[in-house]
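Weekly puzzle thread! Below is a chain. First person to post its structure in token form gets bragging rights.
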Amino acid sequence: MQTMQTLKCDIKDINLAEQGKNNIEWALRDMPVLRSIRERFIKEQPFKGLRLSACVHVTKDTAALCTVMQAGGADAVLVASNPLSTQDDVAAGLVKYWGIPVYGYAGESVETYREHVRVALEHNPNIIIDDGCDIMSTIYDEKPELAEHIIGSTEETTTGIIRLKALEQQGVLKAPAVGVNESQTKHLYDNRYGTGQSLFDGIFRAANILIAGKTVVISGYGWCGKGCALRAKGLGANVIVCEVDPLKALEAVMEGYRVMPIAEAAKIGDVFMTVTGDKHVVDVEHLLSMKDGSFVGNCGHFDHEINVKGLKEHAVEIKQIRPNLEEYKLDNGKSIFVIAEGRLVNLAAAEGHPASVMDMSFANQALGIEYLVKNQGKLPNKLLTLPEEVDIMIANLKLESMGIKIDTLTPEQEAYLHSWKI
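Winning reply:
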């Protein structure tokens, strides 16, 4: 382990390291799949001699992933993927007890966050773990020559998938990328169950409001939106879904939700949450038409989904009510409460998903990097999905850790399912 004198980093307070160590170890207790992968990595050292740059939310769970990658031989550097989501004790714990350089602290400026991403490039990585395509997009925008040395990258989010698809379509993607978000054990488990729970954890911590009886508007009915709507309904809310995809809108209707354009929902909602990965989903005109005392927040990757910048132009006063809760007193006489500055509610105002959820996501990340390394030079420079057998292996490991057994097809049943005969 490196000492603080030789290890470069940019964190808030190294004195928080003991609590950070406790939190990382606590997370690993609830990540049995990742622990089993770590034991194999320790023996096989699949990443020996390789440099890893990870740009993810600096939480106890992502820290656990970084320790697993380090155990597999990777020379790792971690930078924050969001100015507000870093858990400062975790950052300190990684630096002091695992010797992993961390660049990120809660409340850093956007400029500092971008500089930290550039630090990840200075590590000259061979392998990349991305959350929002921050590293990859910065490489292609500022230092495309680094792409020649990249074996591959993994991507955690829908937003990052969108960016990688754009890079592929433009023919500039120079290394294969595994879209972890496309794996079933990721989007079924993490996006739906994790986001649904952690979103409301963030709302409760920031505002401490009762959800039962309120009208909650969810913009976006992808896997994250489905989880948010499900939990809102379970808490007793009247749920409205806003969508642009007719298939998803139809599904929301059949699940019992009201579906309408945001322009209509804005006038009747009490709490508004965006989970789309797009820009200005809730725009100024919608914000101005909301009821006095409405709450708005975002659980998509970036803070573009709600046009908070445009809202500021109509604010006569912005008042900090509680940590991660601001009151915008508007020139139309109404007040709108913005949670976590329009950034990720569940990570800025809470701790993100429970470790047991991230166990699945980060098993995909670890095995995704291993897949890229093992198949170096054999894969196309495209956005890829992990093979189905990897997904199934992760699901089996999770079921085993939960003490759950399932049926197995008999040879006769297997043959029947592959035959055209009656």
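Puzzle host: Confirmed. Bonus trivia for everyone else. The chain has two domains: 14-182+353-401, 195-343.
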